[in-house]
Amino acid sequence: MNNLLKLSLLAIPTLYFSQNYAVSAIPEELKTKANIVIRNEASTYVINSIDNMEINHQNVFTVLNKAGDEDATVVIPYDKSTKVSDIKVQVLDAEGKVIKKYSKSDFTDVSSVSAGALYMDDRILYLHYVPVNYPYTISYSYNVKTQNTIFLPDFYPLLDYNTSLENNKLTIVNKSGIKLRTKNVESSFAKVTSSGDANNITYSYQNFPALEKEAYSPSLKTILPKVQFSLEKFTLEGKQGDMTNWTTFGNWMYNSLLTPVSVVTPEIKAEVTALNLTGTTSEKVKKIYQYMQNKTRYVNVSIGIGGWQPMPPEEVRKKGYGDCKGLTNYMKTLLDAAGIKSYYSVITSDETPQSFDPDFPKMGGNHVILMIPTEKDPIWLENTSQQIAFNHLSFNTTDRNVLAVKENGIEIINTPIYKPEENQEIIKTKVILNEDGSINLNSDFYYSKAQYDFNMYIIGLSKEDVKDAVKNRYDHLKIENLEVNNINNDRDKAEITYQTKFKVNDYSKKLGNDIFFRVIPLLETSNINNNEERKLPLSLPFSYQDIYETEFAIPAGYKLAEKPLPVSLKSEFGTYNLDFKLEGDKLLVNRKITISKGNYPKEKFKEYAAFRKKTTNLDNTKILISKQ
């Protein structure tokens, strides 16, 4: 680093700490809906060579109220390949006067092991300030030296709700002679500005107001602007690689990350031989997969080449655990031993689909799954769950692409998209109406695909906890004598079924000699608030179909006063049907709603809310039966 640049970096913390950070200097529009205001944030990345990068971070933010405290902890991540130094922290009062100073010795140094993790190389330094008064401001800075040049951050204005921004900038000084690719992804929410040249460039955002989380809104990462960066040559934990394109990057991943830890040992070969595999490729894969599920469990293990390299499969075999990388690679090695080709596939797991850019190779993703090519459609395996069905991906990993790592590079492949009729909830209920206002219900529940995912949690619950889950779901009902029976997880079809039997008190109302009741008892209704002005797009993240078939046994001596007419609604978001049939002393109520996934401009939210208000009103339809 030249002397001028060194002096510039040293001067930045002093400059940031010396500015006017009185709360009164914050523009009023940046206080609206904000718990935290980022006053000044700046990061400078100096790439000295393929294996030498220096980073300086500064951040000054004001916490306006108690709700902002949870995001006010100063957290500095590091690992064995990074060196953190020159940590400085100041706390300022509302007038911008320094009231407290901290240094590295005041931080707590802990492993960043999360729940479900066994051991990790990653650590964090953290400092949590306990305020006496609000508002207050925290200003901190630190330097990092690392040999890992593969990780250059995407530059967003911010990624937190109820946080506003005065200034945020990122500078990259590239002294390495290696080509640095950049890509500016624009958005109507904010505009990024840039200055400098290809080897010394600064990007910045200014005056970004706070956003509030809104119903049915997408991940901020998918709607805010960003600038992406990627070096064509890089180092990860001493291993140099090439990211000129996805092919060269895939070759590096295959040869440096996977091949060294993908050995079919005699013990693994013996495991597969003992399974006596027969039948089609799909049948063989399923037998191996369910064998793997039954003998392993998920544990987060982030070690080896920056946490990106899997545990050796022999180690997973012996210990019976692994993380997504280790379990996926173990499953891949079992298939290798069986002579079945499969591909280790990196993916971004998130409720809002996020895909890799085919034109911009970059290290990314947060999860790994396995893809097995067949003559028909690929087989997809999620390897971290002992309970999940064969060839089923959860809603967090469908409808996006993966980086399938092959011998000759990376192939970008799309995961399945489930249709509404594949993501079903079907509830068939027989109801006995009692004259005392109570009802007795016998119900059959069915869930498939994405709705299978949402209900898998009951598989691991005790009988009493399952009962509590049912009561909590239907807390609008006064349930007693609850029985839950025949819970079944069909790991071949990705379907969950079970039956319930219970009594509900005070369900219907007596109006003289008549009985008045709601026609869909097992449906929780909720309203969507559309009174405030919408700021964020509308996102319906997955398609689904709910079918409720309810049969009411009308008490002897009673008669339906008037059968409601069938209703059918149609919108660009989906369809709704409610139908009534009278068969003897039985009233049959059929309700079906189908919602299609999609992303819409914010202006469409009121239309969606209006459509769902109509469906909710119909779901609350009540019927009168009269005593004869």
Describe the overall structure.
By secondary structure, the protein is of the alpha+beta class. It contains nine helices and 38 strands. The chain has an eight-stranded mixed sheet with strand order 5-4-9-2-1-10-13-12, covered by helices on one side. A hairpin with a 2-residue loop joins strand 15 and strand 16. 34% of the residues are buried.
Present the secondary structure layout.
Elements: H1 3-18, E1 36-49, E2 52-63, E3 74-78, E4 82-92, E5 98-103, E6 108-111, E7 117-120, E8 123-127, E9 136-146, E10 163-174, E11 180-185, E12 193-197, E13 200-208, E14 226-231, E15 233-236, E16 239-242, H2 246-258, H3 266-274, H4 281-295, E17 297-298, E18 300-302, H5 313-319, E19 321-322, H6 324-337, E20 343-347, E21 367-372, E22 379-381, E23 401-406, E24 409-414, E25 424-433, E26 439-448, H7 449-455, H8 463-473, E27 478-490, E28 495-505, E29 509-511, E30 514-518, E31 538-540, E32 544-553, E33 558-560, E34 567-571, E35 574-583, E36 586-595, E37 598-600, H9 605-619, E38 622-627
Parallel strand pairs: 1-10, 7-18, 17-19, 25-32
Antiparallel strand pairs: 1-2, 2-9, 3-8, 4-5, 4-9, 6-8, 10-13, 11-14, 12-13, 15-16, 20-21, 20-23, 21-22, 23-24, 25-26, 26-28, 27-28, 29-30, 30-38, 31-37, 32-36, 33-38, 34-35, 35-36
> Total strand count, please?
38
Inertia-based shape:
globular
Structural class: alpha+beta
SS strand fraction: 35-45%
Structure annotation, total helices: 9
Biggest sheet statistics = 8 strands, mixed
Radius of gyration: 29 Å
Cα distance, first to last residue? 95 Å
Give the averaged pLDDT, no decimals.
93
Strand order of the largest sheet: 5-4-9-2-1-10-13-12
Helix content: 10-25%
